[in-house]
């Protein structure tokens, strides 16, 4: 065959390969919008982050007005992506993050994540009179209403700043005072159920799946930083109590969690939102993994082996129940994953893919859902505009049943997935038993990945053409 014909056929094959990759609405008329930013699809095997996508997500995130939980989630995204060695997940080949007990260096290490510390500073300066971080912005807020636990998501960044400022073991100081006030509110002021689960709401007693990302990781991080096993245990206990109350015990949704469970004055519980909200499943899975990482990094890792085993099993339980419900045509979950009449949500889908990568890094045998997570990753690669809105729908962060075009949490989830996927391939995440026990080293591809089979087929076909 003549070279020009080979090149023509190769071009056709590559176009076909690109079309075969899942892209949801990428081919619709919305892709022609003047603000659409066509970013490259990342390699299915290398784990290299999509820098263009991350830069766009970061810009949109930092430009956004943020509520307390969005501020805390943004801190996590910046920490895990920009300064992974300072994240609670650090420790594939080293000694864990600098604040890990028994590994405090004599001087502050290089690479202090200043952006995270800056965000933590603003969380602390906006702390309300009850001790809730990031809650007092305009002066119009009501301290006795709203969420009791969203503010705790900002606590990990404040603890990191306290470590850098050498205040972790101090009796007083700007940073440690802010962290301690937040801890005191969660443990001693927030309402509780009769069983002891800390309410996600301030004025009434209600459990939200969101709370598992906001509160237990903060308690566990506090326990890790201060070498306090009681706080690590409390973090685990809160997840256990939430799971007992909110997990669907049987039926077609077995293993998933409902979203909002409210309690009356006499302790009777009723669902205010009893469906499996996709972002809520992500909040739970990711929150359990962050709590697990703190326990694994602590001196009590061996003593708390059963608690760690539970957290792995409970995370896997959610992923096992979720991924069979992934919509095959778009590689996205519906906003309520057990209701196919709801829209397909990019935000919650991205977050569950993040959890799948983090679990596979910490517990290498639990990699069942990586192929599906990679499909989600590839499906969302070209969906950000140049101003940080999404071409595919994301859930409205202020109205969880409604469709939106962007949100700070969706942009954070995009960065978090990039970090988790990169770290999985690099093998630099702590394992269940601490640094050095997770997945070790890069692998040349993802089992069951999306792009690789298509491209391999294209290359194989081209070689056959050359030989014909």
TrEMBL record:
Key words of the record: Glycosidase, Hydrolase, Membrane, Signal, Transmembrane, Transmembrane helix
GO MF terms held by the record: hydrolase activity, acting on glycosyl bonds
Superkingdom of the organism of origin: Eukaryota
GO biological process, one term: carbohydrate metabolic process
Pfam family, one: Glyco_hydro_88
Signal peptide: 1-26
Name of this protein: Six-hairpin glycosidase
């Amino acid at each position: 065959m003549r070279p020009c014909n080979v090149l023509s056929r190769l071009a056709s094959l590559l176009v076909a390969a690109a079309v075969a990759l899942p892209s949801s609405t990428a081919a619709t008329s919305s892709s022609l919008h003047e603000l659409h930013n066509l970013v490259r699809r990342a390699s299915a095997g290398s784990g290299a982050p999509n820098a263009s996508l991350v830069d766009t997500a970061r810009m949109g995130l930092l430009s956004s007005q943020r509520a307390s939980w969005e501020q805390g989630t943004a801190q996590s995204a910046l920490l895990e992506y920009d300064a992974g060695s300072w994240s609670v997940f650090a420790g594939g080949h080293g000694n864990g993050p600098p604040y890990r007990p028994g590994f405090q260096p004599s001087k502050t290490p290089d690479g202090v994540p200043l952006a995270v510390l800056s965000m933590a500073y603003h969380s602390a300066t906006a702390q309300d009179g009850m001790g809730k971080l990031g809650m007092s912005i305009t002066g119009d807020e009501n301290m006795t209403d709203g969420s009791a636990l969203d503010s705790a998501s900002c606590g990990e960044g404040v603890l990191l700043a306290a470590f850098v400022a050498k205040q972790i073991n101090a009796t007083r100081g700007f940073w440690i005072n802010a962290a301690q006030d937040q801890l005191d509110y969660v443990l001693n002021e927030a309402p509780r159920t009769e069983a002891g689960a800390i309410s996600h709401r301030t004025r009434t007693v209600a459990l939200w799946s969101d709370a598992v990302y906001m509160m237990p990781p903060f308690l566990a991080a506090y326990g890790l930083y201060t070498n306090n096993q009681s706080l690590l245990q409390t973090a685990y206990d809160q997840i256990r109590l939430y799971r007992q109350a909110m997990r669907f015990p049987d039926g077609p949704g077995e293993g998933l969690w409902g979203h909002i469970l409210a309690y009356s004055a006499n302790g009777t519980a009723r669902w205010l939102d009893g469906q499996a909200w996709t972002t809520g499943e992500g909040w739970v899975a990711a929150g359990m993994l962050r709590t697990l990482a703190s326990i694994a990094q602590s001196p009590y890792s061996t003593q708390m082996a059963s608690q760690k085993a539970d957290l792995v099993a409970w995370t896997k339980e959610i992923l096992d129940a979720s991924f069979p419900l992934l919509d095959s045509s778009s590689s996205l979950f519906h906003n309520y994953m057990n209701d196919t009449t709801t829209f397909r949500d990019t935000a919650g889908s991205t977050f569950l893919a993040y959890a799948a990568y983090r679990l596979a890094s910490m517990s290498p045998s639990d990699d069942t859902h990586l192929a599906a997570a990679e499909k989600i990753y590839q499906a969302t690669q070209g969906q950000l505009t140049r101003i940080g809105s999404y071409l595919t729908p994301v859930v409205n962060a202020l109205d969880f049943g409604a469709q939106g075009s962007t949100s700070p949490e969706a942009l954070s989830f995009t960065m978090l997935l990039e970090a988790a996927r990169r770290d999985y391939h690099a093998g630099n995440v702590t394992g269940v038993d601490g640094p050095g026990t997770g997945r070790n080293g890069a692998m040349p591809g993802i089992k069951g990945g999306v792009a690789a089979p298509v491209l391999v087929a294209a290359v194989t076909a081209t070689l056959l053409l050359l030989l014909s």
